[in-house]
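Dear colleagues,

As part of the handover before I leave the project, I'm documenting each prediction I ran so the next person doesn't have to rerun anything. This entry is a single chain, and its sequence is reproduced below.
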Amino acid sequence: MTVTPKTLFLPGATGSAAFWKPVAAHIGMEGVFLAWPGLGNEPAHPGVSGISGLVAIVREQMAEPVNIVAQSMGGFVAIKVALAFPDKVRRLVLAVTSGGVPVTDLGGSSWQSNYRKNFPHAAQWITEPSEDLSGQMQSIKAPTLLLWGDRDPISPVAVGERLQTILPSAQLHVIPNADHDLAQTHPILVGALIKHHLAGTS
């Protein structure tokens, strides 16, 4: 009997486990919807004080190889996980993420001040500069779907294009008239693209 791989859904800096549920509902997909302690309006946890703590949360769900679907900052966590545990990541979906490349160099706008206004109690470390992982990502062999919106000021299409050139098995899909919240505004299309990608056998 074929066992369906577990799919982990990672939110962005808002931290909410509910983020990906509308997309999953449209395609009838079950999975594990993770939350990020201390981010957005999520309660803090003493064991989570940085990205490494989020990586540890994901790792706890990886007894067997998994698929990972990640939004924005969650994509950075997904890349860190794929680098640390390459044999445990079957397929990746990265939506409007930095993924570990310098977004501002590629035209991305700053999001930190608005984030602080919306989530004043969020952990301070979330708005610190991210590590540049560009030199390490060539080792990630997991087939990767990159989902971008052509109107995203935070992570413009140039970021997805850069990731496509770095990741060995990446495919970029740009959604017209979509912004950084494309999973909310285009859940049916996003869901269909994710379902097709995760169904792959390679």
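The chain is about 30% helix and 15% strand. The chain has one domain: 7-198.

All the best with the project,
I.
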